[in-house]
Amino acid sequence: MRVFxxxxxxxxxxxxTLKPACSAWCWPGNMSGRxxxxxxxxxxxxxxxxxxxxxxxxxxxxxxxxxxxxxxCDEAIDDVGSWRATSGSSPCLTMGECRYTQPxxxxxxxxxxxxxxxxxxxxxxxxxxxxxxxxxxxxxxxxGQFCYNGPIGTEYNAxxxxxALACVxxxxxxxxxxxxxPEVCDSxxxxxxxFTDDGSAGATQxxxxxxxxxGSMDLxxxxxxxxxxxxxxxxxxxxxxxxxxxxxxxYPGPYxxxxxxxxxxxxxxxxxxxxxxxxxxxxxxxxxxxxxxxxLITWTVAADRMxxxxxxxxxxxxxxxxxxxxxxxxxxxxxxxxxxxxxxQADYALIANQTGGATFVLTPDWQPLTDDxxxxxxxxxx
Length: 382
Hints:
This protein is 19% helix and 23% strand. By secondary structure, the chain is α/β, with parallel strands linked by helices.
């Protein structure tokens, strides 16, 4: 309850008669007769007996709100204790990355200072967070965006086609794309180069075998020789040239050797049968890069270039290269790279994929190797 005071003045009206006078102004008790903030003293309106009837123009204190004014007339502007007391509901977003944001009264209005992980009004990051604070995580990202991880140009040759970019488990992925696969004898353009079964007899091909000659490769090399015999003898192809490069060595090298330059397959097979195995560093990344860059062999002009790598160790380098650099070199040189390895397919996946090649499991059984090689070079496709 607000208590109003007014001044009482006595005046004489006739002999020995006193009448109460009406105060000129009126105000609540807590205003002490001063105009403070938004509060204003009023003008007293009284009856003939001096009783206050009303207080015209009076503005009394109210609860403080965030509006740049001293609403409660305590000589402090916007000294709002809490948005909950004045706003009811938070003016800030309350879900996702915005959930801990507290409103601050600033520049006469409530301000919401969101964290750097928030993205408003549109979410663009594929990071497993609700960045736009709408209660949904990574929704509607990359809408209508196509993607393709195969060599440039192959996406327009069936059966290859682009996919749709999507955010899955906080990782951008290309869904439903089909990229080139090793060419097999099936009346399809598996490698999406515009030619069907183009590995068949009569095609011009340069095929380089790069093989690890550490002691643990003994049985694998025997299987490679048997598979090579089967593929080469099936349908002779005079336009197909073979080369052999071995790698494994110790400081100061050499770490790789050209055992047979591009030529007849019989030379490669004979050299494989007579190899002396030894251990050491097996710099497979470096060998692949040098073959693609023609520092070890010279590719035939206009030939279909293939590199077949065999090794039972993880990828290694002495020249501090990596999968990304090697992939760029081989893709630029149009060398399809195929890798047979025991447990390390992931080491070579990018190189194989970017060049239109593939990775396979290395096995001492010659039959799977024969099937793999036949599908790649088309030696058994009639």
